[in-house]
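Q: what sequence does this backbone want?
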């Protein structure tokens, strides 16, 4: 055998060995890649299972659900296990509280941008029948035509925080009511009257509508307190509060300013509104005295002022004018009684 033939056989043999080694290397590479892929999948599955949030993903074709994933935390939050969602693909929407479904549907429809993630809080009906609040962070992937391909996101149970928020709101409302309410009569107090009256006169200016302020004072309250006790005096104040509510409209602002002083802010309905309301108040007081037939008769004096719509007036000025008018009327009533007795 010549040297050339020998070299040729050796070369073929070496190539064959190299091909086997290359094939072995490729096989090993494929095995390593598969092993790593499996390891990554296992890692992702483990990672998802350890997250406290309930993760979900739903895939669609032409609006029809074709696949879904729900992490095991779904059972803790909703009561349903992942298999329940597979058995009933509509369960996710069915468990949303009925009054919140339309709001959630609109929220999902408005998710348009790719990877745009937004949150909504809504209620769900737990498997045990209880209603819970969840934070739903969601994103929707769409095709070129705008049809949903995949909806993904996570849910967090926020029932505890919502309940705390509701308790805080109730406490805040109660505190606000207490700060604006007179303890004895349950009418607005001076502070509330000032705030509400200032808002009302601004409205009156805007619509160019006249406003009346009535200043009411209980006659002889000090005498009643000193003679019959503060309980009797308090009863007169409470009685007057009820009379004011029956005399004026529900939309009028009625307040006890303090002591024996009351105020009412009312939209003027006609040129003779002030006289008619003062007369009605007197009649209702007299009716109360006749009905109760008490030894202690309730008596009040009333002053009236009108808000000037030229921008120069204020609630404080109205109170001052109404107080002055009330005092003058009280003096005339006192003088008339004095002349009658003489």
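A:
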């Amino acid at each position: 055998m010549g040297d050339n033939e020998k070299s040729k056989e050796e070369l073929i043999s070496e190539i064959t060995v190299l091909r086997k080694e290359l094939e072995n290397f490729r096989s090993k590479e494929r095995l390593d890649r598969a092993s790593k892929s499996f390891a990554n999948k296992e890692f992702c599955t483990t990672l998802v299972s350890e997250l406290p949030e309930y993760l979900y993903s739903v895939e669609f074709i032409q609006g029809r659900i074709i696949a879904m994933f729900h992490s095991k935390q779904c059972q803790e939050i909703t009561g349903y296990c992942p298999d329940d969602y597979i058995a009933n693909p509509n369960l996710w929407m069915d468990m949303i509280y009925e009054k919140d479904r339309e709001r959630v549907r609109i929220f999902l429809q408005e998710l348009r941008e790719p990877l745009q993630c937004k949150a909504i809080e809504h209620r769900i009906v737990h498997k045990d029948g209880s209603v819970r609040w969840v934070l739903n962070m969601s994103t929707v992937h769409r095709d070129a035509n705008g049809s949903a391909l995949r909806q993904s996101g996570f849910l967090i149970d926020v029932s505890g925080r919502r309940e705390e928020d509701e308790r805080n709101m109730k406490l805040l409302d109660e505190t606000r009511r207490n700060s604006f309410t007179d303890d004895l009569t349950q009418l607005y107090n001076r502070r509330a009257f000032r705030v509400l009256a200032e808002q009302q006169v601004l409205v009156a200016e805007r619509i160019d509508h006249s406003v009346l302020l009535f200043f009411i004072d209980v006659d002889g309250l000090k005498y009643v307190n000193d003679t019959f006790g503060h309980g009797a005096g308090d009863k007169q104040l409470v009685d007057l509060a009820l009379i004011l509510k029956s005399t004026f409209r529900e939309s009028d602002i009625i307040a006890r300013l303090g002591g024996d002083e009351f105020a009412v802010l009312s939209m003027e309905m006609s040129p003779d509104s002030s006289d008619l309301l003062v007369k009605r108040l007197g009649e209702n007081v007299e009716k109360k005295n006749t009905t109760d037939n008490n030894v202690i008769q309730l008596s009040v004096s009333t002053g009236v002022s009108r808000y000037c719509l030229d921008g120069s007036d204020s609630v404080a000025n109205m109170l001052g004018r109404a107080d002055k008018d009330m005092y003058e009327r009280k003096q005339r009533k006192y003088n008339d009684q004095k002349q009658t007795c003489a």
